[in-house]
Design brief:
The complex is a heterodimer of chains A (398) and B (313).
Chain A lengths: L3 E9 L5 E10 L4 E5 L6 H9 L6 E6 L2 E2 L5 H4 L1 E4 L11 H11 L4 H15 L14 H13 L5 E5 L7 H18 L2 E6 L2 H7 L2 E6 L2 E6 L1 H6 L4 H6 L6 E10 L2 E6 L2 E4 L2 H6 L10 E6 L4 E3 L9 E10 L4 E7 L7 H7 L2 H13 L2 E7 L10 E6 L5 E4 L10
Parallel strand pairs in A: 3-8, 3-9, 6-7, 7-8
Antiparallel strand pairs in A: 1-2, 1-4, 4-5, 9-10, 11-12, 11-14, 12-13, 14-20, 15-19, 16-17, 16-19, 17-18
Helix pairs in contact in A: 3-4, 3-5, 4-5
Chain B lengths: L14 H9 L15 H25 L3 H6 L18 H9 L2 H32 L5 H10 L9 H11 L5 H25 L3 H9 L4 H12 L1 H16 L3 H6 L9 H11 L4 H34 L3
Classes of the chains: A alpha+beta (398), B mainly alpha (313).
Chain lengths: 398, 313
């Protein structure tokens, strides 16, 4: 086991595309770090560079205290789990798991022993003689994990290992992998585009956009204090409502106005976003997470937002309420990347042209409105987020 | 290597795709039941098969008839009384095998064919791996050049090759014909094998690299076993081609009894004794035995490997 250190790592392809730009990231010994980002953000390329499957154009990569830039995958002593599992179809499960050890000329009984141990951990003992094609998706996934485990490598690298599983199994395997990782204490770098995996599994999450690291922080920190608009828009499901807004100072109180809404900014938010004070009249991007909406009765009358319910999605545990607003959306590259979907972005642009956008609020089932109903909502303004319109950065110091 | 369809109904959703990705050795096949076709199609196919087979049946029948019978009447006349065993004889086969040197020729053909199959396929497998999975400058160019050699008619190489073989002093030896067939077979072999190996899932090969396999180990432990269908297909192809080859054997080996192959021997049966139809028919069947055995025992590889190599699934 070892640390992973990426220092100013670049990947430039021969055609000039820069897949990874100046990536610096330290993974501590035994830490579970998730690389997450929209498609094409370079997360897989970054992982493949760590594995030695892609050359590093520039910068240094260290595993433990060795610089491994020029080393082959074999010399790096890392194990990788691929999206397709990449099992060897002509070998039995046991041979699949023992393949690396066999190549390393480990004695036969030692291989057997380690394969058995790994199989026990993963509940694969009865399948050891089967071929991969006789296994279910979840079992194959476990074999791929087993292949990594038996080697006791310096680090695990995982490239979207759960994306080929159906939803239910994915949830189970998510927990299983996280548990296994903490039990074995192996340094792990895990790539995913699924932000639920990112939030639930890792000790720390590194968010990438277009090859650039946006923020690397523990999941909760990422959720509470996104460093910029992109992270704010990308992390969280349903996504944060983001609108162009105007700041104002009224009687010593800071207010924010977006579309037809105007609310007071709480002191907590002001002290967190230190740069919003004294910027009366300035245009900013305001972020409201759906889960921080509350029924109108919980806030003072002048703070309520009157909305017309366009759609109600009852999830059982809570209710998603969609409503149309006149709050203009933020159309920027950050938002395009955060949406990670050309159609969704086109929809946002269309909404921007018409001057409004749809918001989503998450309420408790007992407050469930009817479709088409007018209702009043409040917002817990201590959870407001503010971003600079030009730079997209959160309006706070450091 | 026995089943080609994913175990159906085993897991929902992405499992079928996984299956293909994991096995990677066969392209996905669309419902095999569709292939049977309508009764009309089947009837036509059957008729064509019959038309195609009748001359061969005639040949077979003639090969068991006596010399006078063959020259005196058509083979179909035996249909009048097929159970009259006095008209049948195996004398022709005895004559061909032991009195016309066909036995020795059979052995010679085997000596020519087996190395002329094994050598190019071994070399081509290495080359195909390099062409599909190793990065080196000029790889594409070299591959195109190599496959382009397919269009070169082998006849134009006869004189230069014979000169070189003469310089090396190997004219008329088995080595010369092995080398010739290796050269002639390589372009197609490299082409077929590269296409097949190139369609193996990349992640599996990368996984082997991460597991610590060198290029050579990746090749021997992963690529070779996974390419078995394509290797078998090409092996059959090359085997049949060399076994039935006449011109190259005649040019490079010649017609001396100790090196003469069956096809050359067969030609001489016609040339020397134009009247000996009964021997010719038997000789033809002796040369056909081996290709038939090979084809029927390995035909499943033949069909699968050829399609898998050329059409990406």
């Amino acid at each position: 086991m070892a640390t992973l250190q990426l220092d100013g790592v670049w990947k430039r392809f021969p055609d000039g595309t820069e897949a990874v730009k100046d990536l610096s990231l330290d993974v501590d010994d035994g830490e579970f770090v998730i690389l997450v980002g929209p498609s094409g953000c370079g997360k897989s390329t970054a992982l493949r560079m760590v594995a030695g499957l892609e050359e590093i154009t520039d910068g240094t990569l260290m595993i433990g205290d060795r610089v491994v830039n020029g080393l082959t995958p074999k010399e790096r002593d890392i194990a990788m789990v691929f999206q397709s599992y990449a099992l060897y179809p002509h070998m039995s499960v046991a041979d699949n798991m023992g393949f690396a050890l066999k190549l390393a000329k480990v004695p036969k009984d030692e291989i057997n022993k380690r394969v058995r141990e790994a199989a026990e951990i993963l509940d694969l003992t009865e399948y050891l003689d089967r071929k991969p094609k006789a296994l279910s998706g979840g079992q194959r996934q476990r074999v791929a994990m087993g292949r990594a485990i038996v080697r006791s490598p310096q680090a695990f690298l995982m490239d979207e290992p759960l994306s080929n599983l159906d939803a239910k199994l994915r949830v189970a395997m998510r927990a299983e992998i996280a548990q296994l990782q903490s039990r074995l204490g192996v340094t792990t770098l895990y790539v995913t585009h699924d932000q639920i995996e990112a939030m639930t599994m890792g000790d720390r999450v590194a968010v990438l956009k277009r090859g650039e690291l946006q923020q690397a922080a523990p999941p909760q920190e990422l959720y509470e204090n996104p460093r910029n608009l992109f992270v704010a828009g990308f992390i969280g499901s349903p996504a944060m409502n983001i609108a162009r807004a105007k700041l104002a100072d009224e009687n010593g109180k800071t207010t924010v106005e977006f579309g037809e809404f105007k609310i007071d900014v709480s002191d907590e938010a002001c002290s967190k976003y230190t740069n919003i004070r004294g910027h009366s009249g300035k245009e900013v991007a305001v972020g409201l997470r759906p889960e921080h909406f509350v029924p109108g009765r919980e806030v003072p009358e002048d703070q309520r937002l009157a909305v017309e319910v366009a759609l109600v999605e009852a999830l059982g545990s809570d209710v998603l309420v969609h409503f149309q607003t006149t709050a203009p959306p933020v159309v920027s590259e950050d938002m395009r990347e955060a949406l990670d979907d050309a159609d969704a972005f086109a929809e946002l642009e269309r909404a921007a042209a018409s001057g409004g956008q749809g918001f989503t609020a998450r309420l408790e089932p007992k407050d469930m409105p009817k479709m088409g109903e007018r209702m009043e909502l409040g917002f817990r303004t201590e959870y407001l987020h503010f971003f600079d319109m030009d730079s997209g950065l959160a309006m706070r110091d450091a | 290597m026995t089943t080609s369809t994913p175990t159906a109904g085993e897991t929902p959703g992405g499992a079928a795709a996984d299956d293909a990705a994991i096995k990677g050795t066969q392209p996905s096949k669309s419902a095999p039941d569709d292939r049977r076709g309508s009764p009309l199609v089947r009837g036509v196919v059957l008729a064509m098969c019959l038309v195609w087979t009748i001359p061969t049946i005639g040949l077979l029948v003639s090969s068991f008839r006596t010399r006078t019978a063959v020259t005196g009447s058509g083979w179909w006349t035996v249909l009048a009384s097929p159970l009259d065993f006095t008209q049948w004889t195996v004398q022709n086969y005895g004559d061909v095998l032991f009195n016309s040197g066909m036995g020795q020729s059979f052995i010679n053909t085997a000596i020519v064919t087996i190395p002329a199959t094994v050598i190019p396929i071994t070399a081509a497998a290495f080359a195909a791996y390099a062409f599909s999975w190793m990065r080196f400058p000029g790889r594409e160019m070299l591959f195109v050049l190599f496959v382009g050699l397919l269009v070169v008619p082998t006849q134009i190489t006869f004189i230069p090759l014979l000169q070189r073989f003469g310089n090396l002093g190997i004219t008329g030896t088995f080595l010369s014909v092995w080398l010739a067939h290796t050269g002639f077979g390589m372009p197609l072999a490299v082409y077929l094998l590269r296409n097949y190996m190139g369609s193996l899932p990349r992640e599996v090969i990368e996984s082997a690299k991460v597991d610590g396999a060198s290029e050579f180990q990746t090749f021997t432990r992963l690529i070779l076993p996974l390419s078995a269908p394509a290797l078998a297909a090409f092996a059959i192809f090359q085997f049949l081609w060399v076994w039935n080859d006449f011109i190259h054997a005649l040019v490079f080996l010649g017609a001396l009894p100790d090196v003469k192959v069956m096809t050359v021997n067969l030609a001489e049966l016609i040339g020397q004794r134009g009247q000996d139809w009964h021997l010719l028919t038997a000789g033809a069947f002796v040369t056909m035995i081996m290709p038939m055995i090979v084809f029927f025992s390995l035909q499943r590889f033949f069909v699968r490997g050829m399609t898998a190599g050329s059409v990406k699934g």
